[in-house]
C-alpha cells in the first residue's frame, strides 16, 4: 500500500509541475497569437496643421496683458520703495531715542 501511495504522490508532484509548465506554454502561445493578430504599424504621416499667425484681437489682448502687468510691477516697486523709506525713518527715530536714553541714563 505504501508503494502505491508513493507512486500516487510522485504522480501528483509530476502533474503539478507539468500543469505549471503547460500553463506557461499556453500563455506563450496566446501571447504569440495576440502579437500576430495586431496589424503591422503603419508609416506615420504628418497630419498636424500649420497654425496661422495671430489675429489682431489676440495681439491686442497680449498688449493689454503686458500693460496691466507692467503697471502692477510699477505699483509693487513703488510700494517697496515707500516701505524701505518708512523702515529707514523708523530705524533713525529709534536710534535717536536710544541715544537720548543712554545720555539721560
Salient structural properties:
mainly alpha; 2 domains; 105 residues; 81% helix
Beta strand %: under 5%
Q: Number of folding domains?
A: 2
Quaternary status: single chain
How is the biggest beta sheet arranged?
Answer: none
Structural class: mainly alpha
SSE series: HH
Low-pLDDT residue intervals, each spanning 5 or more residues: none
Give average pLDDT, whole number: 82
List how many beta strands DSSP finds: 0
Q: What is the approximate shape?
A: elongated
Radius of gyration from CA coordinates? 43 Å
Question: How many helical stretches?
Answer: 2
Terminal Cα span: 114 Å
Plain-language structure description:
- With 105 residues, the chain is mainly alpha-helical.
- It has helices spanning 2-37, 56-104.
- It is elongated and about 115 Å long.
- The protein has 2 helices and no strands.
- The protein folds into 2 domains: 1-36; 58-105.
In short:
The protein has 105 residues and is mostly helical.
Map the helices and strands.
Elements lengths: L1 H36 L18 H49 L1
Amino acid at each position: 500500500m505504501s508503494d502505491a501511495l508513493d507512486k500516487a504522490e510522485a504522480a501528483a508532484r509530476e502533474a503539478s509541475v507539468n500543469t505549471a509548465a503547460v500553463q506557461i506554454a499556453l500563455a506563450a502561445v496566446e501571447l504569440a497569437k495576440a502579437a500576430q493578430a495586431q496589424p503591422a504599424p503603419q508609416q506615420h504621416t504628418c497630419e498636424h496643421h500649420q497654425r496661422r499667425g495671430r489675429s489682431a484681437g489676440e495681439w491686442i489682448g497680449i498688449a493689454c496683458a503686458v500693460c496691466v502687468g507692467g503697471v502692477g510691477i510699477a505699483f509693487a516697486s513703488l510700494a517697496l520703495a515707500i516701505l524701505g523709506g518708512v523702515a529707514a525713518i523708523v530705524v533713525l527715530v529709534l536710534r535717536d531715542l536710544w541715544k537720548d536714553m543712554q545720555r539721560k541714563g
